[in-house]
């Protein structure tokens, strides 16, 4: 088993873990993947709206990552590569459900003509409990859940996974300009909804805030 340097920073340690995985070390893969499991599951939960489907997507993502790691060249960060696998797994599950007539399918990858404004189209995920309990993270999740898929995914990758505009563009197959536009429109839609919620729940105005953007 390889010994990872305690002096190395996180990026160097990750590179060493990847090399160990590519050499066949299964334990190194477990250590490599653990820091990303929660984010991958959260992507599945937000995009699929079902805990069981999200868990299945997580397992499928881990399996595909393990199988694909020998060919990973490091052209992108490991996290970007992994999240792209997760997004494609979500897409595959949604397509399968659509073919089985279990749910509608709305593609969230690639550019579209006439992007239009974002809106909280599905607000069936009522925020009352999150607002009343003062849970800002839960409230933000509720707002994001109501966004249409392409906006929801972009916000997830930015806010929960911490990816840059360039990395999000790679995953979603759109330009950086489209990424910035989608984030801006999504935040505007969430802000509008938060203002509406604040009329009924004054606490809501304290649960949302804007963060200065960095590409």
Describe the model:
The protein has 215 residues and is mainly alpha-helical. The protein has 2 domains: 10-99, Rna Polymerase Sigma Factor, Chain: A; 128-206, Arc Repressor Mutant, subunit A (Orthogonal Bundle), CATH 1.10.10.10. It is 63% helix and 0% strand. It contains 9 helices and no strands. The protein has helices at 10-22, 26-48, 51-68, 78-99, 128-132, 136-145, 149-159, 165-172, 176-200. The longest helix is centred in the last third of the chain and has 25 residues, at 176-200. The model is unreliable at 3-7 and 122-127 (pLDDT under 50).
Helix/sheet category: mainly alpha
Which range does the strand content fall in?
Answer: under 5%
| CATH A-level architecture of the largest domain | Orthogonal Bundle
Number of strands: 0
CATH superfamily of the largest domain, by name, is RNA polymerase sigma factor, region 2, helix turn helix motif
Count of individual helical segments:
9
What share of residues is helical?
55-70%
**How many separate domains make up the residues?**
2
SSE pattern, N- to C-terminal: HHHHHHHHH
Categorize the overall geometry.
globular
Overall mean pLDDT stands at 79
Low-confidence stretches: 3-7, 122-127
Distance between the termini: 38 Å
CATH class call of the largest domain: Mainly Alpha
Query: Radius of gyration over alpha carbons?
Result: 19 Å
Q: Biggest β-sheet: count, sense, barrel? A: none
CATH T-level fold name of the largest domain: Rna Polymerase Sigma Factor, Chain: A
């Amino acid at each position: 088993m390889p010994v990872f340097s305690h002096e190395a920073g996180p990026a160097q340690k990750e590179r060493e873990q990847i090399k160990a995985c590519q050499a066949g070390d299964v334990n190194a893969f477990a250590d490599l993947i653990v820091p990303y499991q929660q984010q991958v599951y959260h992507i599945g939960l937000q995009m699929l709206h079902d805990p069981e489907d999200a868990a299945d997507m997580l397992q499928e993502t881990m399996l595909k990552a393990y199988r694909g790691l020998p060919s990973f060249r490091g052209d992108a960060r490991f996290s970007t590569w992994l999240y792209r696998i997760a997004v494609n797994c979500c897409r595959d599950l949604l397509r399968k459900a659509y073919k089985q007539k279990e749910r509608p399918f709305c593609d969230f990858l690639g550019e579209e003509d006439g992007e239009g404004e974002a809106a909280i189209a599905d607000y069936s995920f009522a925020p009352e409990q999150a607002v009343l309990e003062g849970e800002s993270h839960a409230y933000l999740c509720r707002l994001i859940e109501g966004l249409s898929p392409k906006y929801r995914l972009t916000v997830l990758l930015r806010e929960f996974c911490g990816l840059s505009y360039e990395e999000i563009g790679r995953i979603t197959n759109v330009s950086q300009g489209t990424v910035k536009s989608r984030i801006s429109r999504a935040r505007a839609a969430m802000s509008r909804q938060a203002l509406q919620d604040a009329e009924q729940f004054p606490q809501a105005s304290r649960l949302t805030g804007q963060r200065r953007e960095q590409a």
